[in-house]
Amino acid sequence: MPEAALSNKSAKELAYLHDLYVATDWSERFAELVDKNIKLPDDGQFLYVEAGTGNHVIELRGKLDEKVEVFGTESDAERLNIAQAKSKAVNAPIHFQNSYPHKLNFPDAAFGTVICDASFLATTRLLAVWQELFRVVDRKGNVAFVLPTAGSFGEFFSIYWEALYALEMTEMAAEIENLINNLPTISDVEDVAANAGFKKIEVNTSTELFEFETGDRFLRSPLISDFLFPTWTGFVPEAKQVKLMRTIEKVINDSNEGHNFLLTVKMTLVTATKN
Predict the structure, then answer these.
(1) Which of 38, 108, 117, 184 is the one with CA 20 to 30 A from 30?
(2) Residue range 96-136, pLDDT digits in tens
């Protein structure tokens, strides 16, 4: 059993792991999708919601004209501390704020352009976040919103179901069905944006593959063990989690027969305007 899957890490430790392993692979791929499909503002105020440990917003700060005032929010205080330290170290002036994406501490219609990284946000919060973005963007403003959508993680969910079956824990299979159904479809995200009031809604999707040499490498990956597994395994009693992880590792190794285990993520960018 990989120790990482059951480790109890502090918020500070998780923030550093996010910076080392999530921001440099997972978040970079979302950032590339944004960069390919948005036009940066020439003036006014620019907001980056859920800026993580700051890599992308700092990079964008370097591309923007000096007269553009840049703001960044992050709901995790420890990640925010890292982002602030980075921006100060490279002299990238950004106004950072610790706030939740569905409850931003800004006045109405304050920003011309808003980017939101929703890749780790609960899907139940999506409408509330879109409504808050609608509130803070100005009447001619535009929004870019990134998140994983339906079709993501399918390889793992299949393995997960097989592991539960092998352990005679099939009464929990409905929870896997919920995990699959909770991933929004393209139509879902379009509807949410429209219900929040946005117009000219466009969607771009990139299929990304994450590779792991073995089941052990998969379960030890900080992206998996510390950031995705808490959601995926929250319904499993703690006393059964060690056996479950061992079984998942075995199923991965047996099913891939020496080949890398591939995890597919449908990375989706939704862009929209207020008018």
Answers:
(1) 108
(2) 999 999 999 999 999 999 999 999 998 889 999 999 999 99
